[in-house]
């Protein structure tokens, strides 16, 4: 069973995108979810354009999402929200995201602004009947300046509270992208109907809490991703990441769970198809 990269920023590959995609297919990565946040609302359509334009026997099937990252939450205007809704109507757009909360960088909008943008996009996802892709980054490891700005605010606590109030009842689920929380946060995410997607940081020596969550998660709720071009897994840490390298993360996850890489590929790809039924079908050329 081929692998699925459930989260890659393909619009970052401007000069060698086709070569990147060919390497992915050759490595056994036959489906990719291209994340449509761009560099803000003005460019969030690029992932969908890539998904629409990518065809070929030796290229992966590409699907897209659309959304506004919490770092850009100040740009969640009525016009931007209408654009998300319009793009989400395309069959190749299978999710809204990545959206959520980020209390890590001092330049990020205040929590109140991020929360408003998150709620507004959950409402669009509910209307479109599409899952959401969550970004959550706490201020725990942030700079002292960011810690001072965000104070005692906890991104995970705030995120799960908003999901409970505005999302869970829709029974549409979603993905906790690049899951980097604790076993307890994983449990709460699972209870809210989310899949846990593990990225290259799963392979890093200091990521024991992530590995604990990855080992404990039920088999029918796990995914793998690159977050390319970021978070390259060991042995490529520090290099530009790309979808082909999801094989390393998948291998680590398989070892943690005591199964073969082939079985892990089959499980995670089937999970992706279950969350996004439209991906069972090969996109039309």
Lateral strand order in the biggest sheet: 1-2-3-4-5-6-7-8
Low-confidence stretches: none
Number of E-type strands: 8
The helix/strand class is alpha/beta
Protein described:
By secondary structure, the protein is an alpha/beta fold. The protein has a single domain, classed as Metal-dependent hydrolases (TIM Barrel), CATH 3.20.20. The chain contains 10 helices and 8 strands. The longest helix is centred in the middle third of the chain and has 18 residues.
How would you sum up this structure in a few lines?
This protein has 285 residues and is of the alpha/beta class.
Highlighted features:
285 residues, alpha/beta, TIM Barrel, eight-stranded parallel sheet, 10 helices, 16% strand
Topology:
Blueprint: E1 3-8, H1 17-26, E2 29-34, H2 46-53, E3 61-66, H3 78-88, E4 93-102, H4 111-128, E5 132-137, H5 144-150, H6 155-166, E6 174-176, H7 183-191, E7 194-198, H8 208-216, E8 222-224, H9 246-257, H10 261-275
Parallel strand pairs: 1-2, 2-3, 3-4, 4-5, 5-6, 6-7, 7-8
């Amino acid at each position: 069973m081929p692998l699925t990269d459930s989260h890659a920023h393909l619009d970052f590959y401007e000069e060698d995108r086709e070569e990147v995609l060919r390497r992915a297919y050759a490595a056994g990565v036959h489906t990719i979810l291209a994340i449509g946040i761009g560099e803000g609302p003005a460019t969030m359509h690029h992932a969908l354009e890539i998904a629409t334009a990518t065809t070929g026997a030796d290229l992966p099937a590409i699907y897209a999402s659309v959304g506004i990252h919490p770092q850009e939450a100040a740009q969640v205007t009525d016009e931007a929200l209408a654009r998300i809704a319009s793009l989400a109507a395309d069959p190749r757009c299978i999710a809204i995201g990545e959206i959520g909360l980020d209390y890590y960088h001092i330049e990020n909008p205040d929590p109140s602004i991020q929360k408003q943008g998150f709620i507004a996009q959950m409402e669009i996802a509910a209307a479109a009947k599409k899952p959401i892709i969550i970004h959550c980054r706490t201020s725990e490891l942030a700079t002292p300046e960011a810690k001072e700005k965000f104070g005692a605010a906890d991104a995970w606590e705030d995120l799960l509270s908003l999901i409970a109030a505005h999302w869970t009842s829709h029974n549409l689920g979603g993905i906790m992208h690049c899951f980097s929380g604790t076993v307890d946060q994983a449990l709460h995410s699972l209870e809210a109907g989310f899949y846990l997607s593990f990225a290259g940081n799963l392979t890093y020596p200091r990521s024991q809490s992530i590995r604990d969550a990855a080992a404990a998660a039920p088999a029918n709720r796990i995914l793998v991703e690159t977050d390319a071009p970021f978070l390259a897994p060991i042995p490529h840490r520090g290099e530009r990441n790309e979808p082909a390298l999801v094989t390393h993360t998948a291998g680590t996850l398989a070892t943690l769970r005591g199964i073969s890489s082939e079985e892990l590929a089959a499980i995670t790809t089937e999970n992706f198809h279950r969350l996004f039924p439209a991906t069972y079908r090969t996109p039309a050329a």
